[in-house]
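Quick log. Single chain, no ligands specified.
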Amino acid sequence: DNIVFKVGNISLPAAAGANVISPLSFFGEEATTDNVEVLNLVRFIMSAGEVGGDGKIKIGANPFGGREGIFDDDLWNTLLNEGEITVSESEAKEHLEETLLKAYSGDYSGTWSGTAHYPGENLIQTSGTWKIEIAENAQVVGSYTGTFDGETIGGNVTGEVDPNGNTDLGANGQAGGIVVWSGKIDLANGTMAGDYSGDYEKGTFAGKKIN
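-> predicted structure:
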């Protein structure tokens, strides 16, 4: 089901119901923190209240003088021309990205599976589990374990996540080198999934936020 939020008497665009809804949720799966529409919405919400020391926005009792309507291009241009939008695009982007990185932070765990094919050897099926921690500064640390040709393997996973939820991680490859884990975090349902590849290994991984 869709949900409609209101800022005072102004309705925002409908968004699909989810455990976590961010400004990106209102503009489709391809929306990023660089989208003008996303940043305009953030500027609008921030201009309706004040940002506290904890980063939360407290909306005033009568934002925009009690103006009624739907947040669309016409209303945006009116508010902008009348000087009601007091937050710049750069301020909005900084706040949004900091907030998103905090939302991504936490512990995640899941599974991985794929194949390894070394020169002169048969294709080998591999699988296992992984666990990572994402800090509020976007840095990622963790580990993986699994089986490789009947033997137990394991190693470290490190990297970072960007404000749009894209992961750029590296894991120690079984034959040396780094296996790159490229994925994406879905805030709406707290999941992370993607692909991994190295010189001889490739596969997929998936998991969820556990706290």
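The mean pLDDT is 93.
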